[in-house]
Design goal:
heterodimer, A: mainly alpha, globular, disordered C terminus, B: alpha+beta, OB fold (Dihydrolipoamide Acetyltransferase, E2P), 2 domains, 3-stranded antiparallel β-sheet, 3 strands, C-C chemokine receptor activity (chain A), transmembrane helix (chain A), GPCR_Rhodpsn (chain A), C-C chemokine receptor type 6a (chain A)
């Protein structure tokens, strides 16, 4: 009896719904954006470009150029962080676009190393700017402050703090099937009709113990990323490089204009790459707990994908902006290609690739040692 | 310098390992509710429900009612929502008890 009464009441609501079908009264779960493979293709391009650039930097340091200044040590570390990042990037994107097929270990590893590399890369770039500041602005003190020993200690501190800052990411990313995709059916009248429109899919996302942890951590993780992974390095860079530019402008050196230009490009590219993503991250963090229409969620998601990709590109640009912009580095690079070319002529035809690389490294290192000179990588 | 090469090798190996453990699965939407319906679904049309919890991927909690006409995102803070869930549970228990008698 009661049931029919209520059903009658609800038929009215039902008809209401019929009329207001498109209106905002009825909210459905938001459909996820299309599984677009463009993202995967772009991540592969970033991966390849970043791999070439950063491994060239690493190879140059490993075989041709000893790390002589603090900036050299930092640059090598940035290249390692970037290389790890770009290698893991297509894997992460592939997993995000499919239903995270690589399982729980890959979930924790990929999310965690993403965070570690992000922090270490950003903090190391700040270290480079500080080193250049000391070298140029505080030139008198630079002999005392700039030693390889220091830079190795600082790099280690950066890596350790990057790992510490990533602990929440390691902790809270889990591989699981979200409960909201699992339907608890009550009405089994026509089971055939219950098409498996969506099987539960695994995700690698946040999972918390309780609501309080959920709400704090959801705000805390992006806030720390914004503060230490973006604003802190940006402020350090802006401060250091402005001082550097002011000092350079005073100097009477015919190359100063080029130096100023390079410094400006480094800062501007950093801001162009990272500012849009961090703004969307901030917007997302602020609006996360508010009710949002699916359109705005979709727009935010698209914006985030685009700005994230721009931020990722920075990893490919770092080798160019920091390493290959230097004359010495370019000379080393030329040497690498020359050596490869010579080796190709000498070895590939009779012996193929097998042992050529290791021999090349030995021979070129000897030849380089004689002609090398000391100096910072900050030479244009 | 040996460590750099070793690091590269480890990275390559790790990538390879991760790639080989790849199993295929179709992609379906994460389909979170981001806002709540202001209207109730008619109870007799409900065929099931899902629980969306803020402790998981989606940032807000919701109860999703699956009806023949579509899905309704409902605010779990509202009393009628929990009432509906309770009634659905009772309905399920009834089915369960009936099938035990057979």
């Amino acid at each position: 009896m009661m049931e029919s009464q209520e059903d009658y009441n609800q038929t009215n609501t039902y008809s209401d719904y019929e009329y207001s079908n498109i209106s905002s009264n009825w909210s459905e779960p938001c459909p996820e954006h299309n599984n677009n493979n463009i993202e995967l293709v772009i991540s592969f391009i970033i991966c390849i470009l970043g791999f070439i650039g950063n491994s060239l930097v690493i190879v140059t340091y490993a075989c041709y150029k000893r790390t002589k200044s603090m900036t050299d040590v930092y640059l090598l570390n940035v290249a390692i962080a970037d290389l790890l990042f770009v290698v893991l990037l297509p894997l992460t994107v592939h997993n995000e676009l499919t239903s995270w097929p690589m399982g729980p270990v890959a979930c924790k590893l990929l999310r965690g190393s993403y965070s570690v590399n992000l922090y270490s890369c950003m903090l190391l770039l700040a270290c480079i700017s500080t080193d250049r500041y000391i070298a140029i602005v505080q030139a008198r003190r630079s002999f005392r402050l700039r030693s390889l020993q220091y830079s190795r200690i600082i790099s280690s501190i950066v890596w350790v703090s990057a790992i510490l800052l990533s602990i929440p990411t390691f902790m809270f990313y889990e591989w699981y099937k979200p409960t909201h995709t699992e339907i608890i059916f009550v009405d089994q009248e026509d089971p055939e009709e219950e098409s498996p429109e969506e099987e539960s899919q695994y995700v690698c996302e946040f999972k918390f113990g309780d609501s309080t942890t959920a709400q704090t951590t959801r705000v805390a993780i992006p806030s720390i990323q914004l503060a230490i992974g973006f604003f802190l390095p940006m402020l350090i860079m802006v401060f250091c490089y402005s001082a550097v530019i002011i000092t350079l402008m005073k100097a009477k050196n015919f190359q100063r204009h080029k130096a100023v230009r390079v410094v400006l490009v480094v800062v501007v590219v950093f801001i162009i790459c990272h500012l849009p993503y961090n703004i969307t991250l901030l917007y997302d963090t602020v609006n996360m707990f508010h009710e949002q229409s699916c359109e705005s969620v979709y727009t935010l998601l698209q914006t985030q994908t685009v700005t994230k990709t721009i931020a990722y590109m920075h990893c490919c640009l770092n080798p160019v902006l920091y390493a290959f912009v230097g004359v010495k580095f370019r000379n080393h690079l030329k040497k690498i290609f020359q050596d490869l070319w010579c080796l190709g002529k000498r070895y590939i035809a009779p012996r193929r690739f097998s042992r050529t690389t290791s021999e090349m490294f030995v021979s070129t290192r000897r030849s380089m040692d004689g002609s090398s000179e000391n100096g910072s990588s900050f030479t244009m | 310098m040996v460590s750099v090469k070793a690091l590269l090798m480890v990275t390559a190996l790790l990538t390879l390992c991760l790639l080989t453990t790849n199993t295929s699965a179709a992609y379906a939407g994460k389909g979170c509710c981001h806002s709540y319906s202001k209207i109730k679904p008619p109870f007799h049309l409900i065929r099931g429900y899902s629980v969306q919890s803020e402790i998981e991927i989606c940032p807000i909690s919701a109860i999703i009612f699956h009806t023949k006409n579509g899905r309704y995102c409902s605010n779990p803070a509202q009393n009628w929502v929990m009432d509906y869930v309770e009634r659905l549970r009772n309905k399920a228990r009834l089915v369960h008890n009936n099938s035990l008698k057979k």
